[in-house]
Specification:
With 444 residues, the chain is an alpha/beta fold. The protein is built from 18 helices and seven strands. It has two domains: 118 residues, Transcription Elongation Factor S-II, Chain A (Up-down Bundle), CATH 1.20.930; 304 residues, Rossmann fold, CATH 3.40.50. The radius of gyration is 22 Å and the shape is globular. The protein binds 6-O-phosphono-beta-D-fructofuranose and magnesium ion. Magnesium ion binds next to helix 16. One of its GO terms (cellular component) is nucleus.
């Protein structure tokens, strides 16, 4: 597309995209295969011989997938008949048109974002083609482990939340802002804990993140916390005497485990402080990028928090369950979140979702993959404006909370990117740096 930088791709040998496709994705597929194999007995117990057959078939489809990837075979159409199959197959044609007839759409030649998303969809296809085990979440073990290993940190956060909620009435506006800012940063740094960047390792939070916030502050490259605060406090509704709350904040979730808890804590604070009346969470329809939240993870996490053997943690869990029952919190999933599209395509390709997001006063996009989709996963100059990279996407005021794990970053000061590169060549992919980056279409 004229004037728009190219998509990141494994075509660039040695790039992060290249290394991901060459090394990390096959590792993830191998782990998936191992996981299915390890659960063979469980499948047998549940489904008898049919379960064993399904296990074998699924593994053989996944091995074939890994081989296609490693030998840069053309991307194939999907055949499982899930309602989104047609979208994926149309998208493949779209890519083929963009690339021209000379070469096939393939793992190392096509946009990284597309083929990486496609891999997760193909994992889903392998399961869907083997009905008895279609619902098996191949990433479940890692997600639950990340949750349990972060217990200490979760307890510390719930205790902090209790302290804030208890004194809410007495807080000055400045104190409220302080808590807001801290919990926003906790949710930001929660994004360090995803399972996909490490190909499934090191994903829990052992210590309380509250203690490290000031040490981490210099690693936040863009900090629009003030803009987010103003958006929330300015969303004053008419006809609500004395109310300063935003009607609705949407959170486009990223990872289960510790990160999800930090999101729920922040959402709890937004409601209990009166900064928002309602929270809409957006999750994934099927297991995605190893650790992303599905409906099952969302419910499971709330149930586990309720059942915890810790006073403030279980109190938080009970409160969250109540919010869900009352409809103050709502969980949604939409096929678009598990498709490969850049978000600038949302208005045309998922108009219902775009319209739904327009109803929010603020949309928070958690994590790296969402940032890649916001910016189209393209090779932008670091000084390009966030607005430019969004290419017209802006259903509502929005903010990305993201630790950097891919080669795309916009909205930096002139020279900032160069300086970072000289200090730490891996600054864009190490997960050490972060942004709180906002855009408000209404203030244009
Ligand atoms: O390849 C590493 C990676 O899978 C990126 O592709 C992706 O953007 C990221 O990890 C997932 O991170 P997050 O969970 O923050 O979206
Ligand atoms: Mg993720």
């Amino acid at each position: 597309v004229a004037g728009v930088p190219p998509s990141l791709s494994a075509r660039v040998v040695g790039s992060f995209a290249y290394l991901t496709i060459r090394d990390r994705l096959p590792t993830i597929l191998t782990k998936v295969i191992d996981t299915i194999h390890r659960n063979k007995n469980k499948f047998f117990e549940e489904y008898g011989e049919e379960g064993i057959q399904a296990e074998k078939q699924t593994i053989s489809l996944l091995s074939k997938l890994r081989n296609e990837l490693q030998t840069d075979k053309p991307v194939l159409v999907l055949t499982d008949g899930l309602p989104d199959t047609e979208f994926w197959n149309q998208y493949l044609h779209r890519q083929q048109r963009l690339q021209g007839d000379q070469e096939s759409v393939s793992w190392f030649k096509s946009p990284w974002l597309y083929v990486e998303c496609y891999m997760y969809r193909r994992i889903q296809e392998a399961l869907l083609l083997n009905p008895p085990i279609s619902d098996f979440d191949v990433f479940n073990e890692g997600k639950t482990q990340s949750f349990f290993e972060s217990q200490q940190a979760v307890m510390a956060l719930c205790t902090y939340l209790e302290g804030v909620n208890k004194n809410m009435e007495e807080l000055s506006k400045n104190q409220l802002f302080e808590h807001f800012s801290r919990l926003l940063q906790v949710s930001l740094w929660g994004n360090k804990c995803d399972l996909s960047i490490s190909a499934g390792q090191e994903n829990s939070q052992k210590t309380s993140p509250l203690d490290s916030l000031s040490a981490l502050q210099p690693f936040i490259l863009v900090d629009d916390s003030n803009v987010v605060w103003s958006t929330l406090t300015a969303a004053q509704r008419s006809g609500q005497p004395g109310g300063t709350a935003a009607d609705r904040v949407d959170i486009v979730l990223d990872n289960a485990g510790f990160e999800l808890v930090t999101d729920l804590i922040f959402a709890d604070f937004l409601v209990s402080s009166g900064l928002a009346r309602q929270i809409h969470f957006h999750g994934k329809l099927f297991p995605w990028f190893v650790s992303d939240v599905t409906a099952n993870d969302f419910q499971w996490t709330i149930r586990q928090t309720m059942a915890a053997n810790h006073k403030w943690m279980s109190k938080s869990g009970v409160q969250w369950q109540t919010y869900v029952k009352q409809g103050v919190w709502r969980y949604h999933d939409h096929p678009f979140w598990t498709q490969p599209h850049e978000f600038c395509d949302m208005a045309a390709d998922a108009p219902d979702l775009y319209a739904a997001l327009q109803g929010a006063d603020l949309v928070l996009f958690k994590g790296d993959l969402n940032y890649r989709k916001l910016t189209g996963d393209r090779d932008w100059d670091h000084t390009a404006a966030f607005k430019t990279a969004l290419r017209g996407f802006g259903p509502a005021p929005l903010c990305s909370l993201r630790t950097l794990k891919a080669n795309v970053q916009v909205g930096l000061q002139p020279g900032q990117g160069e300086k970072l590169t000289s200090q730490d060549p891996n600054w864009m992919t190490s997960g050490q740096y972060a942004v709180i980056q906002s855009y408000n279409p209404k203030s244009e």
